Amino acid sequence: MADGAGFGTIQVGTEAGAEALWSRCRILLKERVGAGSFQSWISPLRLASVEGGVATLTVPTAFLGSYVARNFQEAILAALAEAGGPASRLVFEAQGRTPMRGAVPMPAAQAAAPMAAPALAPEPAEETQRLDARLTFDRFVVAKSNELAYAAARRISEGMAVGFNPLFLHGGVGLGKTHLMQAIAHEMRARRPHTRVLYLSAEQFMIRFVTALRDRKMMDFKQVFRAVDVLMVDDIQFIAGKDSTQEEFFHTFNALVDQGKQIVLTADRSPVEIAALEERVTSRLQSGLVVQVHPADYELRLGVLQSKLAAARVADPNLRIADGVLDFLATRVTSNLRVLEGALTRLCAQASLVGREITLDLARDCLGDVLRASDRKVSIEEIQRKVAEHYHIRLADLIGPKRLRSFARPRQMAMYLAKTMTSRSLPDIGRRFGGRDHTTVMHGVRKIEELLGTDAQIADDLEILRRALEG
Prior knowledge:
Elements: H1 15-33, H2 35-42, E1 46-51, E2 54-59, H3 62-71, H4 73-83, E3 89-94, E4 99-101, H5 108-111, H6 124-127, H7 147-157, E5 167-170, H8 177-191, E6 197-201, H9 202-214, H10 218-226, E7 230-234, H11 243-258, E8 262-267, H12 279-285, E9 289-292, H13 298-315, H14 325-332, H15 337-354, H16 360-366, H17 368-377, H18 380-391, H19 395-399, H20 405-421, H21 426-432, H22 438-452, H23 456-470
Parallel strand pairs: 2-3, 5-8, 5-9, 6-7, 7-8
Antiparallel strand pairs: 1-2, 3-4
Helix pairs in contact: 1-2, 1-4, 7-8, 9-10, 13-14, 13-15, 18-20, 18-23, 20-22, 21-22
């Protein structure tokens, strides 16, 4: 054999010779593929022989051999040549199985030999967190605050090529992020039952990873997560600060993206706001489409209640509800959609059990604790103080008559928050903003609603202020 660059020729007809050659290759490969990929994919390999231009490598599982053949074959062949044991193709021999040939063209006689298939991923039902049958696209209420997130989720569920990967949805609690993820899974299973969809929480990802480490089954773990067509992880912020889990997620992410597989993630904040997240992970999370799901406005809250009521009437056709009750709930319960749906569920249950109509009086009596919690959460005065602090202006200028843009936009933001986070009427809000007319308040609210769809800074300011007020 010809000498490799920097190395002498090694006789690999013996086991010792193969080990010496592979030791040289490992040094070269570790530098070229990176420590993480080396540890995950190259380290488990063993060189059995190099004969007739064919290098035979033993691998723990057929899956690992198949992955290495697709992603590292050229690097291994180059390293073999440089280390003094050149070969024209690779054969991967899973322990106890028929050899698996690499992707390099083979002579016809050898190509006819059976190729060991990579181990199949478990059926999606075995690996996917149990889905809620109610969380489908048909039951998702769309409004300005979530229309982009909905459209992106729909596009992915159709199975067509999309120009973004991953899709990263972020926003507060109870805004529909999990609903959209599960809707994607439901829709994909309905359209293409054989699509391998894996949906789970970040906590479950971490538990599986730690269990695989403990039981020395990391190859099985990698096989499951790298063999899916769509990976969806909920509440990804929970891997922050957990270095080993982040490392494995990083390699899983890269492996799936390299294979053209789709990833969907959710979190309670944007990638750059997740503390203790490695910079390289943050960078990967931002490489696709990042969409904020905004807090529900009045129209969305009312739409959710109407949808919930329609479903309740299917179960109980005799359910009666007075005019104004849904409007009352949409105005008063503003914390999040889960609390809002829970309030209506409680009302429907009580009305059905005692055979009464759902009236405003019944709502006030039955939901006293929910209404009190919502009322004590925020006041117009507190909103004004927080907005003035956020925009670094005086409270007197926020409320006063000056129409400078530096005062007018924060004033409109404060009016919008007062309208959506309190039960005060428009005239009452106007009076608390220097005696302004209710039409001025309406104009301010509409202006912020328009800007939310076009101005990312306004959307970010609103999210920060909501969190400060709700906290």
